[in-house]
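Annotated sample (chain length 249).
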Amino acid sequence: MATVSPDVSATPEPVPEKSAPRRPYPGALVVVEGTDGSGKSTQLYLLKRWLEIGGYRIHFTEWNSSPLVKSATRRGKQRRLLTAVTFSLLHAADFADRCERQILPLLHGGYLVLADRYIYTAFARDAARGCSPKWLRNLYSFAPVPDLTFYFRAPLDVAVNRIVAGRPKLKYYEAGMDLGISLDRQESFRMFQERILNNYDQMVETDHFVLMDGTLQVNRLQKQMRTLVHERVNLAQFAPKKKKRDAAK
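Output written by the structure step:
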């Protein structure tokens, strides 16, 4: 994938005050979702850098990154011991740990939290592995509802080709080989991703996703994303406080 050089010369300007959402905390949560190869991680990284340069109070978190659970998940993958349910429960434990130690404390502390994948990843992937959607919704019922959820959607072949082109070999669980749907890893991956894509599509309206075209140019997508964040999130409350001498001018 070609290296992207975003235009970071212009930092975000706070927008006028908006009515605060009905949340038990002053922070805000912005989430990106999508299949592998949809471009979501690239876009969230660019948004993160844009906000960091502007001095905004932000925190970044990503799926399956809790040090408490990561080693157990890695061992289970290496030994191919994970069933659909145990895999799902490990990811839920990982999320619960990050939610309690990072996401919720920072939301209560008045931060803008950016999440690369959220509970909807479980709803899409774990359901594709055969877990009950109702059971999954109940499992993650403690999670705070995002203020804004971007769903980056690329056609199946586009997303799959992006991943296959950048991987020397697809991993066992990544390719969905545990499902036994194909002996060929690339074909299994494609079929697994198709299931996930279909599950995501079903959540667009019910979970109020903001649909983003993953085939657009990176800079154009980023511009759209920044505009939507301005419109949906009160960035002024996360802006750096002006110094007294600046305010006196």
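Annotation: The first strand starts at residue 28 and ends at 33.
Annotation: Residues 1-21 have pLDDT under 50 and may be disordered.
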